[in-house]
Design goal:
Layout: H1 22-42, H2 44-50, H3 57-78, H4 81-86, H5 88-101, E1 108-111, E2 114-120, E3 124-126, H6 128-145, H7 154-173, H8 177-193, H9 198-217, H10 220-230, H11 241-253, H12 264-267, H13 278-311, H14 315-339, H15 357-374
Antiparallel strand pairs: 1-2, 2-3
Helix pairs in contact: 1-13, 3-15, 5-6, 6-7, 6-8, 6-14, 6-15, 7-8, 8-9, 8-14, 11-13, 13-14, 13-15, 14-15
């Protein structure tokens, strides 16, 4: 019989891992694979028209960006979480610099009156607002992880709110209202999940509400989108044309769909269908059966992702994975509702599906982080905190 001292703690070290969540990994592969397949048959007409008769130009670009995304996927999936936490400052700083670069002519790219992209070599571009989503989640997760030993008071939350609003303001100045509003929603969700006082959010919402009203009313196209949602019969040949064309393509799909390559006369009538309205292309080809299949894949992704967030013993990984899953899941639901006419047009892409290098790269990086969180060992000890306990009568066989 031997006597030993044992230390009991509420949380195990986050550097201990087990095997990753294979089901979650399968859901990511399915969503990415079907997304690339949808880009293949939705983008050919547009690519042939605008990229020198090269029908597969956008498909190749999506594959190239996916490879870059897979690199980040593996980095975030296997990086030590403590090392990642130490790198948060540099991630925030790099994201901040990239956002500022969008306001510098010559470096930034202007499209439709907005400067949201910066130039990269080999005719590539990057949209920093997509990176802001991941950066805000990691920053808030790290900040509230440091608050785990004490009650979160107003004075503790204020610096965090200032950094958060700085990023939201920069994205809004890029004339990307939809993304800035979406980041605000995700940030509020993380505030609530972390245990912050709900009453603190009330003055924040009071402050933000007039900003939202001014942002909508200051741009005619935003007002048109709102009017088009309330009155679908108006602007049939202008601001409501894209929505009506998407509804027509969805209706043409029926239950079983028109099949790949069929019914393209309706599909090609949707301006830039390969971007924000690519869900209409999927539905037109696969029908209601395909919609159910997509929702099942998305729900599988959300279930395993939120399961990881709930079971993960590391607060940083738990908050971070919750934020990443929420971004991909909620953004997907919003995009589908917009395409179906259930929400005003937002310009938010469909994760894994919409053509866009920035979106697929950041999405895969988020998935890597969630997979990393799923590898953290599940805590075996009770969830309440213990002091050091001496066990004097423990028999060792």
């Amino acid at each position: 019989m031997n006597k030993r001292n044992y230390n009991f703690y509420a949380f195990k070290p986050s550097e201990k891992y087990h095997k990753c969540d294979v089901v979650f990994l399968i859901s990511v592969i399915l969503l990415w694979g079907f997304g690339l397949f949808t880009v293949f048959f939705c983008s050919q007409d547009y690519a042939a028209k605008f990229f020198g008769n090269d029908s597969y130009y956008l498909v190749r670009r999506q594959i190239e960006c996916s490879l870059a995304g897979l690199l980040l996927f593996f980095i975030f999936a296997f990086i030590d979480l403590n090392l990642l936490k130490k790198s948060i400052f540099y991630i925030v700083l790099i994201t901040l610099i990239l956002c500022v670069l969008t306001f510098i002519p010559g470096i930034s790219i202007e499209k439709n009156g907005a400067r949201r992209w910066i130039r990269l070599p080999f005719k590539f571009s990057f949209q920093p607002s997509e990176l802001v989503k991941l950066t805000v989640v990691l920053y808030l997760a790290h900040y509230f992880d440091k608050q785990n030993e004490k009650e979160v008071k107003d004075r503790d939350v204020l610096p965090c709110v200032c950094v958060f609003l700085l990023f939201v303001g920069l994205v809004l100045l890029e004339k990307d209202f939809s993304t800035s509003f979406f980041i605000t929603v995700i940030g509020i969700l993380i505030f609530i999940v972390s245990g912050s006082k709900i009453i603190w959010i009330i003055p924040f919402l009071i402050l933000v509400s007039p900003v939202i009203f001014i942002a909508i009313s200051s741009e005619q196209y935003r007002l048109d989108r709102l009017i088009g949602f309330i009155h679908p019969e108006q602007g049939a040949e202008s601001f409501n044309f894209q929505v009506n064309a998407a509804k027509s393509a969805i209706s043409a799909g029926g239950f079983w769909g028109c099949g790949i390559g069929r019914g393209l006369s309706k599909l090609n009538s949707i301006p830039e269908v390969q971007a924000d309205y690519i869900f209409a292309g999927w539905t037109e080809a696969m029908g209601f059966f395909g919609v159910i299949g997509y929702l099942l894949m998305l729900c599988l992704f959300a279930w395993r992702g939120y399961r990881t967030a709930l079971k993960c013993p590391s607060r940083f990984a738990s908050y971070g994975s919750f934020g990443c899953v929420s971004i991909i899941f909620i953004q997907s639901i919003i995009n589908c509702m917009v395409v179906c006419g259930l929400l005003p047009s937002t310009g938010i892409p469909l994760p894994f599906f919409s053509v866009g290098g920035s979106s697929i790269i950041v999405t895969l990086a988020m998935c890597g982080f969630i997979l990393n969180a799923s590898r953290c060992e599940e805590a075996e000890e009770p969830s309440y905190a213990y002091d050091e306990v001496n066990v004097d009568t423990l028999t060792v066989l």
